[in-house]
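Course exercise 7: structure representation. Students receive a sequence record and must write out the corresponding structure in token form. The form below is the worked example handed out in class, using YdcF family protein (187 residues). Read each field label carefully; the graders check that inputs and outputs are placed in the correct fields and that the protein name is recorded exactly as given.

STUDENT ID: A-19
EXERCISE PROTEIN: YdcF family protein
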Amino acid sequence: MQVQHAERERDIYFPPDRLVPADIALVFGMNSPARPAMHAIRLWRQGYVKRLLFTGGYNPRLGATEAGVMAGLAGQEGVPRDAILLEPCAAHTDQNAEFAARLLAGEPGRGLLIVAVHFHLRRCRLAAQRWFGPQAVRGWSSYSSRYYRAEDWPGAARARQDVAGESEKIRRYYADAAPFSESFDLV
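STUDENT ANSWER:
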């Protein structure tokens, strides 16, 4: 029983991938943009998505926009220019989704596949659902932190810190969202 509880807790904090075909991968930026870019490129190569929408504004650590760095990597990896979209202005997660929704306004499609680091995926999904609508978010795929895997999180201080920080931000910015057990179907 304790193992089931631990697995359920892990799946809430680090939702398992839900890989489904979608028109666009909404790729949330970060300080290490090569990781989300390469993950999204793999999904594109595997045929899960037709286009990659990279989000993320100017990052002083990079001296460039996160979206621009990721798009440049995608181009270097052979993704055609017409399969790459940019949202280079957002300063935080909710803006990533808001500005991406404005960019895609009125565009028909089969929905989004969210791409984010595993501990940030819950908040990215909430942001995308807020700005695109719940039906638009068809699936999601995450990549592990370079510091820990989801399976290791209870014993990793950094993981516990990330989970606590994300949980607080979700409570603060998405108080109107349903509780986790309702918002995040466990697949």
